[in-house]
Predict the 3D structure of the following.
Amino acid sequence: MTSKENILKFMGLAMRANKVVSGCDAVVASVLDGEAKLIVFAQDVSRNTMSKILDACESSEHDAPAAYRFADSCEIGYALGKPKRAVAVITDKGFADKLQVMFEDYSENDTEDRT
């Protein structure tokens, strides 16, 4: 089972490899350019931000990337070494594929007993 911490660390690794774009305007541009391979929305993303990005996915002539809602904007920002981030895009297929597997293996309801 993949943990939240492991996913956030992997997102940080992708950021250090310069394979992450974050922030609404940069994400929209990445989607429209076809660079976006996977979108991560924070659980506390605003409807307006999510709507802008989903509209860009629909209007893009490129295939829509996979999208997940995960963690909150503070956690995502911290993992990326940035202030709060409500949305981030993975631009590398290898990182995106691995992250997608991690998301599918992740369940918020599974908790480890650390006593």
In short: The chain has five helices and four strands. The first strand starts at residue 20 and ends at 22.
